[in-house]
Amino acid sequence: EVAEINVVKPANLVFYTAKEKTEIRLGNFPLRRQLESLKVIWVDLREKMSEAEYIDLRFGEKMVVKPREKK
């Protein structure tokens, strides 16, 4: 579920998940391909029981995931 979408810079769309408050950064690549990549990494994170502060998909085939620091 999405809580907020930031479209100030359309080439750098950012949205935040409602439950986890994870920042998702999308770039200037085909949106469908980025969302498919997001689905794969999201499932992987769930299986590992970890949360991400952000997931950055702006770099084509490379994804950047910053783990959330445990408090």
Walk me through what this model shows.
Helix content is 24%, strand content 37%. It has 1 helix and 5 strands; from the N terminus they run E-E-E-H-E-E. The chain has one helix at 31-47; strands spanning 2-6, 14-17, 23-25, 52-59, 62-67. The protein starts with a strand and ends with a strand. The model has no long low-confidence stretch (mean pLDDT 88).
Poorly predicted regions: none
The helix/strand series, from N terminus to C terminus, equals EEEHEE
In helices, the fraction of residues equals: 10-25%
Terminal residue distance: 24 Å
Strand content: 35-45%
Secondary structural class? alpha+beta
Total helices: the number is 1
What is the arithmetic mean of pLDDT? 88
What profile does the largest beta sheet have?
5 strands, mixed
Properties at a glance:
71 residues; alpha+beta; 5-stranded mixed beta sheet; 1 helix
Gist of the model:
The protein is built from one helix and five strands. The chain is of the alpha+beta class and 71 residues long.
How do the helices and strands line up, and which of them pair or pack?
Elements (H helix, E strand, L loop, with lengths): L1 E5 L7 E4 L5 E3 L5 H17 L4 E8 L2 E6 L4
